[in-house]
Write a structure and sequence with these properties.
This is N-acetyltransferase ESCO1. It comes from Nibea albiflora (Yellow drum). The chain has 71 residues and is an alpha+beta fold. It has one domain (7-63). Helix content is 32%, strand content 14%. Strand 2 and strand 3 form a beta hairpin. It starts with 6 loop residues before the first helix and ends in an 8-residue tail after the last strand. 4% of the residues are buried.
């Protein structure tokens, strides 16, 4: 498998550099949509905290609380 090679981090850096012409997105302007457990691990490592933004499709808002795995 192709894991732990920095590909996802490079993709996010590309997004941050190119999303809006002439502008650079900060990390607090990026939200994940319902991340998988591996996505949560990546986001925690990329942002340096477990308190990253998660977009809530139902309400159309962003939350700084990671989605709980509890059902």
């Amino acid at each position: 498998m192709m894991r732990r090679q920095g590909i996802a981090s490079r993709m996010l850096e590309c997004l941050r550099n190119n999303f809006v012409y002439g502008s650079y997105l900060s990390k607090d302007e990026i939200a994940f949509s319902d991340p998988t457990p591996d996505g949560k691990l990546f986001a925690t490592q990329y942002f340096g905290t477990s308190q990253f933004l998660v977009y809530n499709f139902v309400s159309g808002t962003r939350s700084s609380q990671p989605k709980s795995d509890a059902v």
